[in-house]
Each structure stands twice: as C-alpha cells, then as structure tokens.
Protein: 2-dehydropantoate 2-reductase
Organism: Neoroseomonas lacus
Amino acid sequence: MEKPRIAIVGAGAVGAYAGSYMAQAGHDVTFIDPWPEHVEAMRSRGLTIEHLKDVPPFTVPVQAIHLTELQSFAKQKPVDIAFVCMKSYDTAWATTMIAQYLSPGGYIVSLQNCINEEVIAGIVGWGRVLGAIASLITVELSAPALVKRAAGKSGASHTVYRVGEPHGRVSPRAEYITSLVALSDSALTTTNLWGERWSKLVANVMGNGIAAATGLLAKEATADDAIRGFAARLGSEAIRVGQALGYDLEEILHLDAEIIAKAGEGDDAARKAYDAQRLADTQKPGGGAHRASMGQDMMKGRRTEIEYLNGFVVARGAEVGIAAPANAALTEIVKRVERGELSASPDLIRNLRLN
C-alpha cells in the first residue's frame, strides 16, 4: 500500500521533532516553514535532533520548502495528512493555505499548544480535523535545522502524545496518526480529546506566560515559592473554568487536577502536595532546565500566544461566569513586556497583589 503524503505546516520545535522521526522511518514528509534560513539548512544538511540524555544525536535528510513555494504542490500528488504546527495566531491562514492541496480524503491534524480545532473546522469542516497533544515534550528549535530536547524519551513513564477525534470515538485514522507520532515517543489514541486539550492548556497556562514575564527557566520559576504559588492560582482558575465547561480533565503536571485547583484556592494540604510534586520534578534529569516556548518567543522577539492561553481562560471563564483574575493579570503583563513597556523580571510576578 502506498504511504500517504504528509505535510508538516510549521517546522518549529514540535513539528520538526515529530516529523523528523516520520521521515527517518521512510514516510513521504514535506516540511513547510516561513523561516528561510531554517528551510535552506534542512535542505542542505538535513534535520538534526539532539536529546539531553539517553538518545544519540541523529541527522535525517528531509524535503523542505518555504511557504512561498507551496504553489508547486498544484502539480504534485495531493496531501493526505497535514499537521498544522504553527502558532495559534497563524492557524487560520496556514489551514487555508494547505487546505487547497488536500486529497479528497485528506485531513488536518492540529499539533499545537492551544485549542485550535474549531478554527480549523471552520475552514475544512469537522470531518477533516483531528487533534494531537504533545505533553511535556520540552523541545526547542535552537538553530536552523537543529532541534534540542531537554530530556530523553519519556516512554512508559509519561505518555507524550495523545491523539483524538473531536467526536470522541476511536477511528482508524486516529490510530494511524498515533502510530506516526509514536515513532518519536510514547503515544495513545484518546476518546477524551477535549479533556486532554484542556488539561494541556492548564499546564501551559501555569508555565508559558510565567516564562515570558520573568525570563526564567522552568526549573527556576518552580523553585521560587511566590512564583510557584502564583502558578497554582493560574492553574486553579483554568481548572475551574474547564470543569464548568464540562471537560473531564486528565492528570496535569503529574498531579490530579483537583490538587492543583485546591492548592491555588489556599487549601494547605493540597498546597503541600502540590509543592512536593512540583519541586520533586525539578530534581529529575533535565528537571525543567529548559525555557518554555513562550519564553523562547519573547527572547527571539516573536509574538507570544498569551491571548490563546491565559487570555483564552479569561474569555471562556466569562462565558460561564467564572472570573480568572490571575490569568487576566498575567495576560496584561506579558502583553506589556512584548510591547517593551516592561522588562521581563521575576518581580513582575512576585509583586503582584490580587484580591
């Protein structure tokens, strides 16, 4: 049977990491990216993947094109599977761009930080959308054609990828996508895409904006008592909003969602359990010695996804009558740092006074 044609739309850290293993396994993969130097490096010397431990570095030859060259697809075999791995604010145009080159049975997989399936479905229809979550993957595009992962493989200790259909049933195509992402690390097909999505959102809400506002590595932020406490409050608000929306939440940062929620609400026993787990995580190999993706964006002068993470919690909370003041405050701080009105500093969080 002929292998499907796969497009990775956005060859950033996650897209390049997952796609490199697909290419290594012999799949027909084309990487599409807007960064010219990255595209040229992939073309000339392949895509290099490095891990903090356990996995030897490797380089795989890949097909890569700049997004301005995508019109060449009109004369080629249609795309069967398109992984959209762009920033959330680029989802709509990236989906529109690749949709015209899909085969009749082709579909799009959102392999992104935020919740973008509805945006994609508005362009191609719900029948052509799947979701894929990359949990605690800690990858960074540190240079053109070079992805570094601040860990080894998670394997059985933590399931990195969760793939699901919006309707919640297990389908052959969902299982096939699971098999593709499983080439790079542990994966499962979920019947709870929306619960998985919101759980991933909570984890991002607790770390990404803080990295952008403070300039700290994940490990440094977790070690700071005040910032760790603020992260719990961010998570608590997001969890309560998700519960009000009816989502069945999964484990978050190796903790039951209710522990995080209660810790953020001031429950002493929950806060002790939360602190113990979060601090224990920093002692593991790698242990948060990485910069969350929004922190990377801030350092590179790129637009952040704060409005699609913490800002999204605030907006959805308003719909169900739940205030999210901590998430609102962090959203505003990150926007001001982006605009150059504030300089990234831990004190931006430490000095917050919320009722």
The two ends are 61 Å apart (CA to CA). The chain has 14 helices and twelve strands. Residues 196-350 form a domain with the N-(1-d-carboxylethyl)-l-norvaline Dehydrogenase; domain 2 fold (CATH 1.10.1040.10). The chain has a mean pLDDT of 95.
